[in-house]
Amino acid sequence: MTPVPHHIAIVMDGNGRWASRRCLPRVAGHKQGVVSLRRCVKACAQRGVGVLTVFAFSSENWNRPAEEVSGLMTLFTMALAREVPKLKADGVQLHFIGERAGLSAKVVAGIEQAELATAANSRMIFNICFNYGGRWDIVQAAAKLAAQGEPINETSLSSAMAMAHVADPDLVIRTGGEQRISNFLLWQSAYSEFYFSDKLWPEFDEAELDLAIQSFAQRERRFGKTSDQLVAKTLPPARA
Ligand code: IPE
Ligand code: IPE
Ligand code: MG
Questions:
Q1: Which stretches of the chain are assigned E, i.e. beta strand?
Q2: Model pTM?
């Protein structure tokens, strides 16, 4: 059986294009994106993924037309109200990663309620990055340490970051054909494997997820070492 990455992170891109191709408003694409996300969460849990992290709304997405931003906020609260009881029953532990200041009281209430309702679950951790930017996370972590008079080093910074409760992502998937990071997990993806899919997010199904997992299984993660060092480690020590 193909080894499954412990932590998969996804830039769910392409909702707008999916809708435009069908002459639908962009928000219809986001709505279909929620359906795709629900399918993906289920598939990851079934495959034994330990942590799933998705990029749902970036710090920069506020710059979109007001109608799309408000449509996304409404969809977010509606999807939470509908899906949290099911996620709770499925054993999924929800976390929201991002800046809460700037979000409406309704959105923050939905987030807090969802985190509380699923806190005791342990089958899979599901992080939703919402009003999130990788630069924001690095800056808020450094500012927190500075305010506490703590030294800033890789260990302290990592533990002050918004994703400190999980290991770094093993596999970062981006759908929608673009090959860029767009301010996602800048610090945490230092040694992640990347997989870019031309599928638009609403089209990304179980078979596409399996293709990404298969591609990951073929990578050699060297973490700065040589290939020979990694092979030597898996062989029994040579007899004298
Ligand atoms: C990603 O899909 C979802 C969000 C950014 C909220 P897009 O809305 O970016 O879709 P495209 O890239 O315009 O097709
Ligand atoms: C990245 O997608 C953010 C999310 C998926 C939430 P964007 O569509 O915003 O990224 P750019 O603007 O094309 O880089
Ligand atoms: Mg996009």
A1: 7-11, 51-58, 92-97, 124-132, 171-174, 193-196
A2: 0.96
